[in-house]
Amino acid sequence: MAFLLWLILLVAYFHGSPAQNTTRTILSGTRLMANSQNTSSWPSPLGDFAFGFYNLSEDRFLVGIWFDKIPEKTLAWSFNRNQPVGLGSYVELTVAGRLLLNDSQGSETYIYNGSLYATSANMKDDGNFVLRNSDGSIIWQSFDSPTDTLLPGQSLATNQTLISNANGTIDFSKGRFNLEMQFDGNLLLNAYRYKDPAYWNTGSFGDNGYLHFNATNMLMFVYNTTTPNQNNLTADKLPTPLNDYYHRATLNDVGNFQQFYYKKANGTQVGQSSWSLAWQAIKEPCIVNGICEEYGYCTSLGDNQKPSCRCPQNFTLLDPNNPFKGCYPDFAPQRCGKDSSMRNFTVQVIEGVDYYNSNFADLAELKHSDRESCRKAVMDDCSCMAAVFQVPERTCLKKRMPLLNGRSGTPAVDRIAFIKVATTSDTALPSPDRKKDLRSRDLVAGLIITGSVLILIFAAGAIYCHLASRPCGLIKPSSISSGIEINLRAFKFSELQEATGGFSRRLGRGAFGTVYSGTLLSEDGQIGIAVKKLEKVMEHGEKEFLTELRVIGRTHHKNLVRLLGYCNEDSHRLLVYELMKKGSLSSYLFGDGEKPNWRHRVEIAMGIARGLLYLHEECETQIIHCDIKPQNVLIDDHYNAKIADFGLAKLLMKDQTRTSTNARGTVGYMAPEWLKNAPITAKVDIYSFGVMLLEIICCRRHIELDQIVVEVEDENLYITDWIGSCIKDGELRKVVEEDEEALSDFTRFERLAMVGIWCVSPNATVRPSMTKVMQMMEGTIEVGVPPLISG
């Protein structure tokens, strides 16, 4: 009886209200509620860290882990960084052994939903939140899914990434930069949404490399699991004794990976007031690619100084509260053809400024020139808006739009930027003051003519729009960016005809036209291009052509094929892309040559997923591809995967729920809703990606299962059915029994296979979003058993 009473009291203690909950072990059935009293957390034994609801504002919370004993309450990990929840949300370690987040709107998301049952959880004093099963073994831990920070004792494994937040301590959602440990052991920093190469890296350190934050000496090392070698990243300049300080390493919102320390409070002794810098990867902040987004250029006062962003003249900050979001032009770019008059434009000169890695893909280099000839080259070319003159090399590089990677100071001291800007009101977009002047003048004219107030207002608006020769909404940055005047290179039809040998070198044919390979001459030799010749222009082609130009002009990601220019001459509609010499993923996977190894197949799958995530959720206008398949994924010279043909997809604005399209897609990759006249959403791409993901990890076509030495029923002839059956029967290892590399990494293979099955659910609402697909593929969240299997 005494034992029973003790057990009842113990359970009551563990299930107390959040305000009274000082337990260090959380049992199944325990719930943590988001409230406004700042008591929504489970602390570690010494109170150094806490897991729970991190308060962003009065009614917005992240589920996260933070340093709890310091005034700043610095966040070290978060689960829902892109989707804060409200008051009344709760986290529960369910009796079914899962860790569940239920937001105040009733939506449920599993933080952990694995096959093993969690019977308890605890927040450890090293900052790691763990779930344990009945024998005390750890079955899930936050250390395995870092966000933007590493803590002592934590590692960044192969193919894992840290992703910066969007804006310091204001916006913790995913930002623009990542720290990635590649499969070849190269640790690198890049602006992952852009095509540009890494701006910092350690160099290849061998397969199976990983970054480890040593908890003994507080130094970071790149290790190789196959050899005893290690590469020390950080200098031994830390305060002593080390245990008197908190330590963390964070990728910040301006793309720098930095290590910090913070003095702990000790009895009556007060700790530090802020974090101190111990080490950083980037000493000159303006070398970070994409730091000032489009058109802006980075300035700093020297090493270790905080960067800032500026706009060229006639450009305006997109967000005055956050200069790092870039700039937009206050004018419509110059057009070629009948509207190409030079008198309304001039070229502004900015000394000591470079726009790095934004060349016309080396299509327009003027070597052995001087600054005046470079300025004149910009002025005389209606398709060119900017160039940079490299003083020591005496080279003029024309730039593609939008301008990226602007920098001044040390990285660009011997560079001169030339930017074409409007000089007259006929070309400039109307400013608020000018709009007021025009409106007043038109009202007076209207009074004289009609004397009617209502007609006057109508006439003033009509006259204003006519004078501007463009929609009134062009004053808005979003309209500026989405207009056709995106300043891609305008090619003449004769140029492309000559470059492609009279359109004789055919690469392939798609739904919208035929693609030809070609070459263009530059000072450095021949440049390879791929030219898509659109057909049936009078029916649908012209509309699709204009749509693609508007969208691709502001679409930049390293896993998307880049559009270089276009031809819009008479009835000719052509698009010019960078040439992918390695061909399509289909040929790479299923061709006669050597098949890619397992780790490279994983990299390809992750790259395609990142590209789709950008199209669905990160670019200004959501893009549904509608025909994801291996033939529409191309491989570049560095064997990176790039999605092609996305510019010919239907567009879905953020506030729409349905798009009406003609049936698209390819048999085998088409989602069921195409054939059911059901709403077409981004989930059609999720389905196609799921099929392709299974093809990639198995290295077999979705309908060529006759090569596999297993007995299958007719319904298992497709890869989706076959993989699903193997998972359901617990025989998934049969799929990779002849693939030693994949078999040695079976846990990852199983996870990716489960993700693929989730994606091909017949019910579109059950399929995960691309954000969740990425989280499952990276191992950030547990995959769980798909309903197609469990049902």
UniProtKB/TrEMBL annotation:
| Catalytic reactions of this protein | L-seryl-[protein] + ATP = O-phospho-L-seryl-[protein] + ADP + H(+); L-threonyl-[protein] + ATP = O-phospho-L-threonyl-[protein] + ADP + H(+)
Disulfide linkage: 292-309
Q: Gene3D superfamilies from the xrefs?
A: 2.90.10.30, Bulb-type lectin domain, Phosphorylase Kinase, domain 1, Transferase(Phosphotransferase) domain 1
Question: What keywords would UniProt list here?
Answer: ATP-binding, Disulfide bond, EGF-like domain, Glycoprotein, Kinase, Lectin, Membrane, Nucleotide-binding, Receptor, Serine/threonine-protein kinase, Signal, Transferase, Transmembrane, Transmembrane helix
Name the Gene Ontology molecular function terms of this record.
ATP binding; carbohydrate binding; protein serine kinase activity; protein serine/threonine kinase activity
State the signal peptide span: 1-19
What Pfam families does this protein's entry cite?
B_lectin, PK_Tyr_Ser-Thr, S_locus_glycop
Compartment(s) where it occurs, according to its Swiss-Prot or TrEMBL record: Membrane
Q: What is its main location?
A: membrane
Please state which protein family the record places this protein in. Belongs to the protein kinase superfamily. Ser/Thr protein kinase family.
UniProt protein name: Receptor-like serine/threonine-protein kinase
- Species per Swiss-Prot/TrEMBL record: Cinnamomum micranthum f. kanehirae
Its ancestry begins with:
Eukaryota, Viridiplantae, Streptophyta, Embryophyta, Tracheophyta
